[in-house]
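Is this the right way to post structure tokens for a design question? Let me know if I should format differently. Anyway, here goes:
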């Protein structure tokens, strides 16, 4: 029988030796040297080496016990080169009894490795990134056993922490002399601009990866018990979410939680965690390690379904770490830096408002939609959002410096100096433009041909109200009352509703404030209300349809509106009305409440106007009748155009497919304004297009005199209107709208008009 080693000294237990190396105060290089020595001494091996990934993706031999020391910092392998390169590429351990027989084996003379037969290498992973490879070799032919593989994975994890700490120290401060690690590369991720603005800031992961502060367990038995307890808490919490016993924590759909439950009970996952704890890790570190393994593998998956599963597993791992820390299993951490940019897969409006507004500079989402309420709230608050930034969460870590470009819809992660400089230039230019808007905030939006357009705000929350004066808006053209419901944990009571409406009216002063009754359903879901599953929620049971079928909520709301506007002018309108009958029925409900208030001798508004939102094509065909029953009309162009073009406004694949400046869209908008003007019924537009300068000047040219928009639209739209001859533009547009000869969008024609006339649009 051959003896495995030349020097058959009794093996020392690995973990205590590693712990000792960790506790030492030596330089990072000395620590790596200690690690390889400890591994050789306790694993019955002849060689242990650490290869780290350098700039340019080369693997450099950075420490060794057993190979020639002269090769350290000299031997370099290309990605995929040899067995070590293969392990770095696949991010999977490789355990071979006869390494030289492997087709990928490559021999490096300078290391003197030819006599070694057996080979075990594990990737050094952190956060899904491969930092290097840890190798053990021995002279005789044998396979390393499972425990040895586990042990080496544990050591690799500890190594990753040491390396990343050094990398974080960066540049001169880095102690890993002679090694320039593969830098955390600058990345640019393209998405969609959900809310405009340019900001610089530090990334903050909405669901943070929990860094295990204490990696190695003191008492493996105790850690095992902690892990089992944590798993039980996790499973119980996921069970109760799925069964609907508790509130929907993250507002994610039930499907996601069903998948979570599947993973939470997955025996393989549980067993991997148990093995990791058995190898000497704390329970938290075990979760982190298993998560890293999954990440490294699934990040390479091209299949979007598999990549989505990665997120599910990550979320689950975060929950388990929280359970281990004894936290309630809730998402959201409000401890953010002063210039935080939140990164999340998706974030609901309530979760968003959990963050300190003064510190929240921007948001980057992997999913989301431009018309979601999170996006609407961010536009109201002036917080840029980049949405649908696919894969961004795989590239970011809390603390990374980022540039959020809410104009172009992209985010620069760890930007290069020149990228940051040109971004700063754009911020400066934008600052100048904002100053110009500010200087004209008290001017009326008067076109060159003397038409005065009322520019009003779309609002919905208390925090929107100061903006009325800040931008010099002429009123609130759309107060989305459902926002208060959406951002509350519980249904707002009559008193709370009344207070908010009163504050809005007071903020308006002499300016009109138009309340829209609750527009719930579709994407506006209340956490405390039962959700009715629907195939097509946008054309489902929503808004006025709910109100008429279950009038309790709207009557309650009308009561609050009447009481809030006692002594003032009340303007109220109904959303998503499709037929005149619905309008009549809604108005009757209003009148019933008004009569009730009268019979109770309540103080009443001194003036009341009851209007309708025109946001279904069917109503556009009944404008004459609408004007008989409504005191005013507000065109909800977001919905109107989605139904008109049959293109879901929340579906990125189709939402930008049809241009609002298409002659078909401008024609329907024209026929509405013409119809209302014929009856002297005031009409406005309150969809997003009202806040887009090019579209806004067209609306003015068509005859609209009131536009209601997100706060960011007021300055640019006013600037454009001040330079526009609306009559001249109407003359250009009209032939295209009457002849049906134009089949393409009129955007280019309007852009040319702007260019020729010096209109900033
Ligand atoms: C609209 O549909 O244009 C509108 C203003 O309402 P919301 O965006 O809230 O549906
Ligand atoms: Mg609408």
């Amino acid at each position: 029988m051959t003896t495995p080693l030349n020097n058959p000294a009794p093996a020392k237990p690995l973990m205590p030796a590693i712990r000792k190396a960790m506790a030492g105060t030596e330089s990072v290089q000395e620590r790596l040297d200690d690690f390889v020595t400890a591994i050789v001494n306790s694993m019955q091996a002849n060689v242990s080496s650490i290869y780290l990934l350098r700039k340019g993706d080369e693997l450099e031999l950075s420490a060794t016990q057993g190979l020639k020391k002269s090769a350290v910092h000299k031997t370099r392998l290309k990605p995929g080169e040899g067995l070590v390169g293969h392990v770095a590429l696949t991010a999977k351990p490789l355990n071979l009894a006869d390494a030289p027989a492997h087709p990928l084996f490559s021999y490096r003379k300078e290391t003197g490795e030819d006599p070694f037969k057996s080979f075990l290498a594990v990737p050094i992973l952190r956060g899904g990134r491969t930092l290097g490879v840890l190798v053990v070799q021995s002279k005789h032919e044998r396979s390393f056993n499972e425990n040895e593989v586990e042990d080496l994975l544990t050591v690799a994890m500890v190594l990753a922490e040491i390396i990343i700490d050094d990398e974080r120290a960066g540049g001169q401060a880095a102690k890993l002399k002679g090694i320039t690690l593969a830098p955390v590369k600058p990345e640019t991720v393209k998405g969609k601009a959900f809310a405009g603005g340019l900001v610089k800031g530090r990334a903050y992961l909405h669901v943070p990866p929990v860094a295990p502060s204490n990696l190695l367990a003191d008492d493996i038995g105790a850690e095992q018990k902690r892990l089992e307890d944590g798993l039980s808490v996790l499973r119980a919490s996921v069970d109760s979410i799925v069964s609907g016993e508790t509130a929907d924590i993250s507002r994610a759909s039930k499907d996601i939680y069903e998948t979570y439950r599947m993973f939470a009970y997955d025996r393989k996952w549980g067993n991997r965690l148990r093995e990791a704890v058995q190898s000497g890790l704390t329970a938290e570190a075990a979760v982190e390690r298993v998560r890293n393994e999954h990440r490294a593998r699934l990040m390479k998956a091209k299949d979007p379904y598999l990549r989505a599963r990665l997120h599910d597993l990550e979320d689950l791992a975060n929950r388990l770490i929280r359970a281990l820390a004894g936290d309630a299993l809730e998402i959201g951490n409000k401890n953010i830096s002063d210039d935080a940019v939140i990164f999340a897969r998706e974030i609901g409006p309530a979760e968003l408002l959990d963050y300190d507004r003064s510190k929240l500079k921007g948001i980057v989402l992997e999913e989301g939609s431009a018309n979601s309420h999170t996006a609407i709230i961010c536009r109201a608050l002036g917080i840029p959002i980049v949405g649908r930034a696919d894969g961004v969460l795989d590239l970011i870590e809390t603390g990374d410096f980022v540039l959020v470009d809410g104009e172009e819809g992209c985010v620069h992660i760890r930007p290069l100096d020149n990228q940051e400089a040109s971004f700063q230039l754009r911020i400066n230019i934008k600052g100048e433009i904002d100053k110009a808007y500010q200087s004209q905030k008290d001017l009326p939006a008067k076109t060159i041909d003397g038409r005065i357009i009322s520019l009003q705000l779309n609002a919905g929350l208390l925090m929107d109200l100061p903006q009325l004066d800040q931008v010099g808006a002429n009123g609130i053209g759309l107060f989305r009352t459902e926002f208060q419901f959406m951002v509350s944990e519980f249904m707002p009571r009559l008193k709370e509703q009344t207070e908010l409406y009163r504050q809005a009216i007071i903020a308006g002063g002499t300016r009109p404030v138009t309340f829209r009754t609750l527009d719930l359903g579709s994407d506006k879901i209340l956490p405390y209300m039962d959700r009715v599953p629907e195939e097509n929620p946008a054309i489902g049971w929503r808004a006025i349809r709910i109100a008429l079928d279950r009038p309790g909520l709207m009557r309650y709301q009308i009561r609050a509106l009447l009481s809030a506007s006692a002594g003032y002018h009340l303007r109220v309108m109904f959303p998503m009305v499709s037929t005149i009958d619905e309008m009549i029925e809604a108005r009757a409900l209003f009148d019933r409440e008004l009569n009730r208030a009268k019979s109770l001798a309540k103080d009443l508004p001194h003036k009341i106007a009851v209007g309708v939102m025109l946001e279904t094509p069917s109503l556009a065909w009944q404008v004459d009748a609408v004007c008989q029953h409504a005191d005013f009309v507000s065109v909800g162009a977001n919905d109107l155009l989605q139904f008109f073009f049959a293109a879901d406004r929340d579906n990125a694949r189709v939402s930008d497919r049809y241009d609002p400046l298409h002659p078909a869209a401008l024609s329907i908008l024209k026929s509405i304004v013409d119809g209302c003007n014929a009856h002297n019924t005031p009409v406005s537009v309150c969809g997003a297009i009202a806040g887009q300068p090019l579209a806004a000047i067209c609306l003015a040219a068509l005859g609209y005199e009131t536009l209601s928009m997100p706060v960011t639209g007021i300055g640019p739209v006013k600037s454009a209107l001040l330079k526009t001859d609306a009559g001249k533009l109407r003359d250009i547009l009209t032939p295209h709208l009457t002849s049906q000869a134009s089949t393409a969008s009129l955007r280019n024609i309007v852009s040319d008009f702007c260019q020729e006339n010096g209109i900033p649009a």
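Format looks fine. Someone answered above. Worth noting: Residues 1-9, 171-175, 247-253, 329-333 have pLDDT under 50 and may be disordered. Residues 14-174 form a domain with the Beta-Lactamase fold (CATH 3.30.450.40).
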